[in-house]
Here is the input.
Amino acid sequence: MSSFDTGHAGVCTHIPIGDLMDLRETRSQTLSHDGTLIACISNRSGLSQVWFCDPDGGNMRQVTDLPERVEQIAFSPVSNDLLFTTDVGMDERFQLWVLPECGGQPYALTAAPGVQHKWGAWKSDGTQIAWTANDRDPYLMDVVVMDLATGRTERIVHGTGFQEVLAWTKDGSGLILLDSTRGTADQDLWLLSLKTREIQPCLTSAGRTMFRSVKLHKNGTGAFVLCDLGRDFHEVLWLDFSDMSVSAYASVEGHDIDAFALMSDHAGLALAVNHDGYTRLMVTTGKQAELREISLPFAGVITSMSCAQDGDLLYTLESPAQPPAIWRWHSASGHCMQVSPPVPGKVDLRALVLPDVARLASFDGTEVPYFVYPPLGEKPVAGWPVLFIVHGGPEMQWQPTFRADVQHYLSRGIMVIAPNVRGSTGYGRPYHQADDVAKRMDAVNDLLTLASAVAARPDVDAGRIGIMGASYGGFMVLAALTTAPQQWRTGIDIYGISNFTTLMATTGPWRRAMRAAEYGDPVHDADFLASISPVHALQRLSAPLLVVHCTDDPRVPMEQGEQVLSRLRGFGHPVEMLRVEHEGHGFSRISSRQLAYGKIADWLAATL
Here is the structure.
C-alpha cells in the first residue's frame, strides 16, 4: 500500500464521459524572465493552446488560437518573447514559432511541415536558439543554430542518430547534447564546441545511462545532471566544467528523482521523488542531512517544476481526482495555492476514486506493483467486472494521474487494474531492463499471473475480465489475448503494435534506431521479432476486439491496426475498428477523446 491516505469520498454512479472530459487540464508552466507572467498549456478551449495567468493566481487568458495543438513553450531568458512548438495532426513534425512580447501575432521560425524540429534551448543573452532537425536525412538529427535578429540558420554538426540540444553553456561557446542513438535507456551526454565543431563526452560510464535533464548553474562553472549514471535509480549529480569531474549532489535511496528545479539562488534544489508513482516534493541544499519534505495539497503526481526569483516554487500537480493545474508553494509561509483556476463543471471531484497500490509475486518470484481502482456502486452478486489497463512505452510507469475515462468506468461499476509489469520505469534499472529484447514475453507473463490472481479475488467476477492498452500497451493486449485467450472477456487495442517487423519499417525514421535498441534489430533479430508479433497468432483469439487507431500516427502507423482488422475479419472473428481522423499517437482534441472513449465505453457496456 502507498503511505499516502487514499480512498474515495461520496458515492455517485454513471458519470457521463463528456462531463469528465469537461474537467480541463492546465500544465507545463514557465515563468517570464522578470517573474511577472506565467505561460502554460491548457486545453480549456478544447485543444492545447498557450494561456497566460498571473503569478499570484487567476486572470487566465488564451493567447494562441491555432488549428493545431501547442506542445512545448519556453520564454526568452531576457524578454517576454515566448517560443512554442506545434505540429499537424499530432504527426510530431514540430515547427518552431514565436509569440513576441507576450502578445501580437505569432510568427513561424520554421516552415517545413515534413521535417521534425526538436526544440532545444535559448542562448543566455536571448540572441540565438538551437535545435535539432532531420531535414538533411530523415533518419538523423542535425544540430541547427538560428540568429533571431537576422533569421539566419547554420547547421553546426551532422547528427549520427537521434540527438537533442539540452542547454547552451553560460558563455555561449557550446551546447550540451543528448544522444539517444542506442536507445532512451542508453544515452550519451556531449559537449559541442560551436567554434571548433568538436564533440567531447561530458560524462562517461561503463554501463548504460539514462539522462532526464540538465540545468546549468548561473555562474557557468558546471551543471546539475539528473541521471542514473552507475546507479539503479536516478539522482542529481554535479558536473564540474573545469575538469569534467562528477560528484553526487542529491539522491533518495531506493527511489527515482523524476524531476528537479533550481532554487532562485542556485544553492539548492526542489526534487520530485517517485514513491510508487506518487510524488513526494523535497528540497535540499545538496547535503543529504538537509533533505526535507514539502507537504503537497493532495497526494498526486508533479509533472513539471520551476522556481521563481523570490524562492517560491511553481509546479503542475494532478491526481486521479484532480485534473492537472498549476500550483505555487510560497517558500516564506510554506503555503500552497492553486494558480490556474479550475474550470467549473458538473462533476463533484469528491466523488472520484483514488487507487490503492498493491504487489504480487510473478511467475518467477519478481515482485510486480499494480494499482487497484475500486468501482463505485453496489457490488454485483457475482462480483465486479474488471478492466486491466496496460501502459505504453514500455519505458514508462502507470502513475496516479487524472484519467477521465478511468473515472467513467469506475462509475459504471467496473474495477480497474493498472499494472507496472517488468520493463516499467520507477522501480530501478534492473526492473526496467528485465523485459529487453529476448525477455519481452516475461512482461506478458507478469500480466497473465496478475490476471489469474485478480480473477481469484472473492469480489471479482472471473468470467468478466477485459484488457485495454495503448501503443506498447496495445501490443500487451494482443499478446495477452493470444497467449491466454480463455482469460479474457473482451479486448481493446488502442494504436497498438501488432507486427514488429512492419513497425520497424514504417515508424517515423528518426525513431527507428531507438526502437531497435528496445525491441530488437530488424535484421539481426528478424526471426525473434516475427515470433513475438501477435498478428501471427490472432487465430487464437476468443474475446471480441475493438481496435482504435489514429490516421496520422507517426510512431505506430495505422497499418498496425489495419493488419489486425483484416486478419480477424478473415477469420470471421468479432472485431470493430474506430479510425480517428487527424490525430497521431494520442488524442489532442477534446472532441477526439470524446469520440474514442465514448466508443470504448459503449464497447465495454456491450462486451464486458
About this structure: The longest strand covers residues 460-470.
